[in-house]
Structures are given as C-alpha cells and as structure tokens.
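Forwarding the complex inputs:
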Amino acid sequence: MFSAIDMEEHVVRPIGRRGESRARVLEAAVKLFSENGVSGTSLRMIADELGVTKAAVYHQFASKEEIVLAVAQPAVDGLTSAADHAEQQSPPHARFDAALEGLVAVVIQQRASAVVIRDPVAARLLETHSQYRIALNRIQDFLIGSEPTEEARIALALLGGSLFVSGTDPALIAVGADRLRATLQETARNLLQPFRPPA
Amino acid sequence: MFSAIDMEEHVVRPIGRRGESRARVLEAAVKLFSENGVSGTSLRMIADELGVTKAAVYHQFASKEEIVLAVAQPAVDGLTSAADHAEQQSPPHARFDAALEGLVAVVIQQRASAVVIRDPVAARLLETHSQYRIALNRIQDFLIGSEPTEEARIALALLGGSLFVSGTDPALIAVGADRLRATLQETARNLLQPFRPPA
DNA sequence: GTCTATAGGGAGATAGAC
DNA sequence: GTCTATCTCCCTATAGAC
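Prediction (whole assembly, four chains):
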C-alpha cells in the first residue's frame, strides 16, 4: 500500500501538507493580480512566479475563474461575518455601528482581495456569487436602510470608492492598519451620517 | 490634383471629415474598456464594434497604447486647465476652491476616462505621461500643500477613490451631473477641510 | 480608409507519463 | 504534485492591394 519512499516523503517534506500548494498559488495570484490586473495576469505568469508549469497550477484549480473566486472568498466570508455580527445587535444604531466597523475591518484585513473588483470582468463574476451579493445587501440595509434615497446610494457608492482605494492604492500600503482603520471609520461615519436608517 | 471623384466624396460623405474615424475608434474603445477593462479589450473587439477590420483601426492608431493615451487625453487636458485656472487665483483659499471645483468638473465631464486608471497596466502607462503627473501634482499642491502630512495624503487618496467610482460605477451613471457634482464637492470639502494649505 | 493575408507568439485548457 | 506535449483559439502588429 504505502512504500517506504512514500512515508519518507511525509517526513522530509512536512511543508507539503494538504492545501499548502493551493495557498501558494493564491498568494502568487494576488501579487500578480495587483500588479497587472486579473485580465492582465495569465496562468503562465502565476506558474512562473511559483517556479512550476501551468499544468501544476491546473492541478489545484480547474480554471482561472476558480482562482479569482478563491482569492475573493476570504473577503466574502468576512462580509458575511460582519453582517451576522451586526444582525445580533438590537438597537438600530448598534447595528449601524457594527456594520460600519465590520466593513472597515474586512477592508483592512483583506486588502488584497480588492484587486478582484478592480477588473470589470472579475467584478461581474463576483456579482454572480450569491453569498457576496447577499452579504453586501445585508450590510447596505444596516447602513442606509432597505429603501435608500438616491442621495444615500450616492454616499454609499462614494464610500465604496474610498474603501476600494484603501485596498489597491500603492501609496496607502505603507500606512499602518490602525491609522487607516481610524481614518476610514471617521470618513465612513461622516459620509453616511445623514442617511442612517430610522430607529 | 483633385479628381472629380475626390470632390464628390466630400459632398456625399461630409461625415468623413478628418478625425471622424479616430473619434469613432475612441468612442468604441471607451465603451469596451468600461465593460471589459483595458487588458480585457482587444483591437479585434474594437474593430468589430465599428464593423471594420483590425487593420482599419491600426490605420488610425499605431498601437493599443496610443488608443489608451488618446482616451485619457481629454481628462489630462482638463486637469491641466483646472491647475492653470487655480493658479490664477490669488488668495490660497481661492486656489483651494478653484482646484477642488476644477477637479470635480473634470470627473463629471470626463467620467469615461476613468476606465483607464482602473487597469493597473494602463494606469502605470498614464503615470509615465508627464503632463498627467504634473497636472496632478499641481492640483495636489493647491489642495493639501506641497509637503502634506500622512493624514492629508490618506484623505486625498480616499477622495481619489470616491472620484474614481463616480466615473466607473454603473450605479452612478443614472445620477444627474448637477446632483453628483454637488455631492462630490461637499464630500471633497469635508475630507480635505482639515488639511488645507496654510495661508 | 479599408481590405486580405500573414507573421510570430501567448492565451486557456487537456491528456497522459512519472 | 509535477512534468512534457499538444490542441485550439486569440492576441498585437505589419505588408501590401484597392
């Protein structure tokens, strides 16, 4: 069944645990996506970055789409958690606060995932991912209510732009997480204050 | 010199004036860039959109890079004009006001050009365009001074994100120019207020 | 200003050996 | 888990006729 060589592989390469190769592919993909965009990054570039062939990458992911979705998944999970946490608060103002802080926290923790929505095609792909749409809609409800005015929708879109650059602008990479979080929360509060859902 | 046929061409096809074909290429390019991104748009797609062949497009522009730069040029010119106009004001607060209003006006009038900076490779290309860098630096000086603090640079980056989505977010396309301009000016003022250059 | 034709290369993806 | 080899298609760009 298992040869001595197989056993030894497990001893001398503890690094080869299940999922390690997938993670390395995603790491390389995020780096290249942020430099060249999703459409500007080929599977060959990802393979070269890892020092392997394209076929090795295709062993981990069936398609480029799968890689894109896997890159975005941590952020999608973060948004879902943020919506769950906000929902557990009882007064509406506490839900607003929790949703806003959760949203900013995802941007801070998952900055890299923003590269996906920078590409229009990848962004559309993500929008077909129901978990993503649902989480965003729930957070939107907590922030500006379920029937927002046009002004509220504009404000939310402008906030989205600010959050987006926080994840993609090279000039902000050097900024510490704490300072960036504080600025984002203040900015978000100022933008959305007039449109908070009624109690 | 000019044959009768040449003359007749001018009569029956007044539409074929110099530059018309270039303009049609740019119009198609902007549309496709916004749908698929710059890297996701091929010259074949542009040609198909116009009902011609790739070679016809190459007759107007020597390369894809040239198309990208030509798409961005109206915005670059707008930024330069805005910087010129701000410079003519004398008190610093008037320069701030003029720079801010000029910047917002460019975003409103040249929304389509934002598609170029959505692509990381195209954005880098644009940054090698000295007229663009110079205009942006001048406007930055009027808004947050020539030696901004880190907080000021963060605020300016966040504003940049909001301006950027104004040009690219499909949800904002339906918003009237006047309402969007007013919201952007207010947002920009709130974001930059604490960092205005000293008088 | 538009066409056909072509060059030279890279894309995503698959088959099958090790 | 990685490889070589290959398929098919599309890419940017150019040459030269009309």
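Residues 64-87 of chain B form the longest helix (24 residues).
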